[in-house]
Amino acid sequence: MKILLAEDQAMIRTALASLLRLEADFQVTEAADGNTALKLLNHQAFDLLLSDIEMPGCSGIELAQYVQQHQLPTKVVIITTFGRAGYVKRALDAGVGGFLLKDAPVEQLVQAIGQVMQGKKVVDTELLLNSLGEQDPLTEKERQALRLAAEGKSTGDIAAALYIAEGTARNYLSEAISKLHAANRIDAARIARQKGWL
Amino acid sequence: MKILLAEDQAMIRTALASLLRLEADFQVTEAADGNTALKLLNHQAFDLLLSDIEMPGCSGIELAQYVQQHQLPTKVVIITTFGRAGYVKRALDAGVGGFLLKDAPVEQLVQAIGQVMQGKKVVDTELLLNSLGEQDPLTEKERQALRLAAEGKSTGDIAAALYIAEGTARNYLSEAISKLHAANRIDAARIARQKGWL
DNA sequence: AAATGCTAATGACAAATGTCACTGGCTTAA
DNA sequence: TTAAGCCAGTGACATTTGTCATTAGCATTT
Questions:
Q1: From B149, which residue of chain A is nearest by alpha-carbon distance?
Q2: Disulfide engineering: B97 pairs with which of A12, A85, B116, B123, CB 3.0-4.6 Å?
Q3: Where are the domains of chain A?
Q4: Which parts of the sequence belong to the Response regulatory domain (chains A, B) (predicted)?
Q5: Each residue of B65-96: pLDDT tens digit?
Q6: Which of residues 99-158 of A touch strand D (CB under 7 A)?
Q7: Which of B11, B108, B186 lies nearest to residue A186, judging by beta carbons?
């Protein structure tokens, strides 16, 4: 079985590739970033893409979206450090077959690969529950205002950028702060980003 | 050579341990968190401790400090995702022999282990320069005020907690914001934490 | 058709923040 | 001994933020 492993940390990538070759006799090709992975996906046919999320170039979720949009015959399994609700949701929307945390034992990864190849979905139940329980409470306007605030822009700048009044911008930010139980706008943005909502 | 590998992500730990056994015929014992690592260090003699920093229980730096304080005959090599200046400094102060990022290739890790066993220090030059270049600009009072602000406390609460006037608290926070080029106090705290200064 | 709920939008105003000019004490340099 | 620099500390005040009450439009429910 041909696997493409996309992981930017060299040490981790080599170790995982090596282990997968040992554990299950997979043919593993390595990609050090999202763009390299993308090129490889276009050059060869892989049975499965095993990808981290946060990498230089394309993220793992963007790779999954690409596979889905181009209807490549490649299953996708995500392995990541943080099981953010936003990530889980977007990954599933992008048609990934598996979503695992790096906390999981290797046996579980190997088993997940097998099940995904058989057409099953493998996502940690707890992650799913977290994902469902943590619906993104922000409206699109609140999100836009928050993003700009996180970039250090003042209320006036935010108002100008979104073509709204200052009072409106303040209200959007205030709503976001309240929904996320944050101390202020920057804190609200941090929380939203942490949950994958920004 | 007996190595203790402390890494909380099961998949990563198994993969690294497996690779180290293959690559260089090391005897690797695994610890899933800092406390387990501590117990093992007290039960057996290891030639080297290879540790992540951020783990449940003791951090990798705390483990290094323990080894130093108890003068255990165990060399320490840190491998971590983020090369924060604060981490590098504290790790070196704790007498670690090596400090590597997970970005580094496995060959570099194996080589570093060898050199550290010969009594050499192995730290990425760029990390060292970053660490030196990024001196903690905060005074102790500014740090205390920032920490409390990061916990969501108001200026009044901070003043009360530190037995200072509100104006003083505001000034400390303002100084910190200015030094770190932050948008506000919460942002300043985020930056300080990111750099290992908080 | 009317009521209800939600989002987008606004401005008044109170509260909080952040800047600034300042003082005092201590350490270091001239 | 004096000057300079830094940290700890303070309060006045301008600026910004955040809350709140409000309106309008649209979709959904009754």
A1: A183
A2: B116
A3: 2-133, 140-194
A4: 2-117
A5: 999 999 999 999 999 988 777 788 888 888 89
A6: 154-156
A7: B186
